[in-house]
Design goal:
By secondary structure, this protein is of the alpha/beta class. It has 9 helices and 10 strands.
Length: 260
C-alpha cells in the first residue's frame, strides 16, 4: 500500500552568502515522506551548506526552510533541540564519543528525549541488531572499523524513529565493501518509512540506483530528476557499480601484499 505523499521538508527561494558571493542561490526543493533523494554535485557545490540549513545548524540570508512544523524564519535557538529530536543526522566523520561504548553512544540520542532505561534498552537492542552490531555493544569506537563506526552513527541517528534522515557524505571515508553495506542499510531504513536525503560528490555511486537525484552546481539546482526503479530493493545495490567495486576488493588477496 502506497503512502499518501506528504511534504516533510522544504527549501524555498533560499540563498546563503559567502563573503561577496552566494554559496547557495535561490534553491527550491521538497522532500516527501518515504522518499530517498540523492543530493549530488562536485566538492564545493554547496551540498553540506544546504544540509546544514535544512537541519538548522545555519540559517539562510534569503528564503526559508521548513522541516515539519519548524520554520527557519521563525526559529528560536531554544527550539533547535526540539527539531534535532525529530530528525536524524549522519556525518562523514561519524562524530562518536570515543570514551563511550557503542550502546552508550546510541543511548544518548534517546536520553535527551526523556526515554526511560527499559525503553532505551529495548530500542537499542533492536537497532543494534538491525545494523549488525549488537555483539559489539560494549566496544568503544576506536576498536571498530570505519564501516562499523558509521553503522553506529546511523543507529544513533534513527534511535528516535525520525521522519527524515540527513546524511552528509556518509560513505566518503569508506572502502567499497563498507560503502555497499552502508547503502544497503540506508535503503532498508528508507523501506521502513524514513525519508533519506543523502549528499555525495560521487555521481557513479548513485546513477544506477533509480532514485531521485538533485544535482547542485555552483550553488544552484542544475537538475532535479525523479528516476523510476522497478524490482527488488536489493537489486539497486546488487546491479550497481558499488557492488562491483566491493566484489573486486573482497576478492583481492591481501595476504600476498606488503606488510604495513
Amino acid at each position: 500500500m502506497n503512502q499518501e505523499k506528504r511534504i516533510i521538508a522544504g527549501v524555498y527561494h533560499v540563498s546563503r552568502g559567502l563573503g561577496k558571493h552566494f554559496s547557495l542561490e535561490d534553491i527550491n526543493l521538497q522532500v516527501a515522506n518515504g522518499e530517498f533523494v540523492f543530493l549530488v554535485g562536485p566538492s564545493g557545490a554547496g551540498k553540506s551548506t544546504l544540509l546544514k540549513l535544512m537541519y538548522m545548524d545555519d540559517f539562510p540570508d534569503k528564503g526559508q526552510v521548513v522541516v515539519g512544523q519548524f520554520v527557519s524564519t521563525r526559529m528560536k535557538r531554544k527550539s533547535i533541540p526540539d527539531l534535532r529530536r525529530k530528525i536524524g543526522i549522519i556525518f562523514q566523520d561519524f562524530r562518536l564519543l570515543e570514551d563511550r561504548t557503542v550502546f552508550e553512544n546510541v543511548a544518548l540520542a534517546m536520553k535527551v528525549t526523556g526515554a526511560g532505561m527499559p525503553e532505551i534498552k529495548k530500542q537499542i537492542t533492536d537497532i543494534l541488531t538491525r545494523v549488525g552490531l549488537y555483539h559489539k555493544r560494549y566496544d568503544y569506537p576506536p576498536a571498530l572499523s570505519g564501516g562499523e563506526q558509521q553503522r553506529v552513527a546511523i543507529a544513533r541517528a534513527v534511535a528516535n524513529r525520525p521522519a527524515i534522515l540527513f546524511a552528509d557524505e556518509p560513505t566518503g571515508n569508506l572502502d567499497p565493501v563498507a560503502t555497499k553495506n552502508i547503502l544497503e542499510l540506508l535503503f532498508k531504513i528508507n523501506a521502513g518509512g524514513t525519508a533519506v536525503l543523502m549528499a555525495t560528490h560521487d555521481i557513479e555511486l548513485v546513477r544506477s540506483f533509480g532514485q531521485r537525484i538533485i544535482y547542485l552546481e555552483e550553488g544552484r539546482v542544475a537538475l532535479d530528476k525523479e528516476m523510476i526503479f522497478v524490482g527488488d530493493i536489493r537489486d539497486r545495490i546488487g546491479g550497481s557499480s558499488v557492488s562491483e567495486s566491493a566484489s573486486r576488493l573482497s576478492e583481492y588477496d591481501i595476504t600476498g601484499g606488503e606488510e604495513e
